[in-house]
Amino acid sequence: MDQHLPALAGLPADEHERYAHYLRLLADVPEAAEFALVAAVLRDADPAIGRAAVEFHVDLRAAELLRTPALAGWAAAMSELLGPDSFGHRRIREWLLRAAVVRGEEWSADDLTAASVWLQLALVESGECPEVLPLLAENGTSRRIRNIAAARLRRRPPRALTGP
In the Cβ-directed half-sphere of 31, how many Cα atoms lie within 13 Å? Predict the structure, then answer.
């Protein structure tokens, strides 16, 4: 972390510049220093700035780790830093649910229908998980999600009949 702490000295007074500075630091942070840098960013004088930068980072990093076994460990450590009542913690839980769906692991229909618009929309728009389409066409959080899922279902090629 030593190489990143000096970059936190003499931060810009303007919150927009500070936010942009944090995003640059988080984008380039080595894996070994990531959690220490996140903790430092979260201590910003304006908590909203630090949280916003870290939440942006969470989405980028979780997307990188989505299909890897490293996601679970990273998510646990990051969630601990963010705290259980934070938006970032809730977003990480949704990344874990997305990973389960994408990887074909066990997931709950109740969890998916209770998930945010962000997650449901990401799943129906990506087309990477056709098994969620019937569920979200019927029970998606918004009309937009239900419509996209239903349209994707209509465009799916018919299944070949098997038998003699």
Answer: 8
Q: C-alpha angle 6/33/18, rounded to 5°?
A: 45
Closest CA to 35 of 79, 96, 88: 79
Cα–Cα distance measured from residue 22 to residue 45, given in angstroms and rounded to the nearest whole number: 13
Kindly give the interhelix angle for 87-103 and 117-126, rounded to the nearest 10 degrees: 30
Nearest to 99 by CA among 53, 52, 64, 137: 64
Which tokens hold the place of 9? 């000295």
Low pLDDT (below 70) residues in the chain: 1-7, 157-164
Output phi, psi for 74, to 5 deg. Answer: -60, -45
* Distance separating alpha carbons of residues 94 and 23, to the nearest angstrom: 22
Residues whose CB is less than 8 angstroms from the CB of residue 146 and which lie 6 or more positions away in sequence, other chains included: 136, 137, 138, 139, 140
- Tens of pLDDT along 9-57? 788 888 999 999 999 999 999 999 999 999 999 999 999 999 999 999 9
- In this prediction, residue 7 carries a pLDDT of 66
